[in-house]
């Protein structure tokens, strides 16, 4: 995770961002701190990277690396405003003894568009990540990749349209918002995950799908109450956090969280 020390909205690279609206960095820091402490309270270890001036979106750490079995595929941002973030994260990995670190040649926004189910990597495209980056991820990470087409600009990354509930289960469980995907990708998702939790427009519009699950606890925005009820019916424990200020940049719990696997 990266603290939102310099968080603001000074440009617009997704439909959620409006530089004309006021933003409180102080409130963003408080909400981020609540999220970090929530993870720690649930028993998770949180590693930190220092925020850098001039990079207001660096708080969204999920976009800067994909880690599976200790192998790291870095990111290559589409928006020039975020491009410098990638090298800060690359150096962090090397300084923390990760040796299998590969920087991509194709545009990929890491866990923004790459979601590990425990068996395969779901890979989004349509707004940010280059489709050719999916093949690059398969070569670098050595895992099977399934491409999914995003069609709604509000849900510009895979991680605001889908999340994995349990990547340790024999049959991975996911939750997703069908209308964020093309018709063909919806058919793929139904085939792969016939028992998925399906989100509604209301769930998606508060970034309820930008959630983090550890297989039991699901950390999600406080507004996503109906989705939380459906998750509880499946045996998961919803854990609410307020991300209203961070949402002004189109981010939520998952955007702030890169998962270090192995």
TrEMBL record:
Record's keyword terms, sorted: Transferase
Molecular function as annotated in GO: arginine deiminase activity; transferase activity
BP-aspect Gene Ontology terms: L-arginine deiminase pathway
Pfam family, one: DDAH_eukar
Domain of life: Bacteria
UniProt protein name: Amidinotransferase
Source organism of this protein record: Solihabitans fulvus
């Amino acid at each position: 995770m990266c603290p939102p020390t310099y968080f603001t909205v000074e440009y617009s690279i997704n439909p959620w961002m409006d530089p004309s609206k006021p933003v409180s960095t102080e409130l963003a820091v408080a909400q981020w701190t609540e999220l970090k402490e929530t993870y720690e309270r649930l028993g998770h270890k949180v590693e930190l990277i220092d925020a850098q001036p001039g990079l207001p979106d660096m708080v969204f750490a999920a976009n800067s690396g994909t880690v599976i079995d200790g192998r790291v595929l870095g990111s290559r941002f589409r928006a020039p405003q975020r491009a410098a973030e990638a090298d800060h994260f690359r150096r962090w990995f090397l300084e923390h003894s990760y040796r299998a670190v590969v920087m991509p040649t194709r545009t990929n926004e890491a866990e923004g568009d790459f979601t590990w189910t425990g068996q395969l990597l779901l890979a989004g495209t349509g707004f940010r990540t280059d489709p050719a980056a999916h093949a690059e991820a398969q070569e670098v990470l050595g895992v099977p990749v399934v491409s999914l087409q995003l069609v709604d600009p509000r849900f510009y990354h895979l991680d605001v349209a889908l999340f994995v509930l349990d990547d340790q289960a024999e049959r991975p469980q996911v939750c997703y918002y069908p209308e964020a995907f093309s018709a063909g990708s919806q058919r793929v998702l139904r085939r792969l995950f016939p028992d998925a939790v399906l989100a509604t427009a209301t769930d998606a519009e508060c970034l309820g799908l930008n959630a983090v699950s550890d297989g039991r606890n699901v950390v999600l925005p406080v507004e996503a109450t109906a989705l939380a009820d459906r998750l509880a019916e499946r045996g998961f424990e919803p854990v609410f956090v307020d991300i209203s200020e961070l949402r002004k940049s189109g981010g939520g719990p998952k955007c702030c969280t890169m998962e270090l696997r192995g």
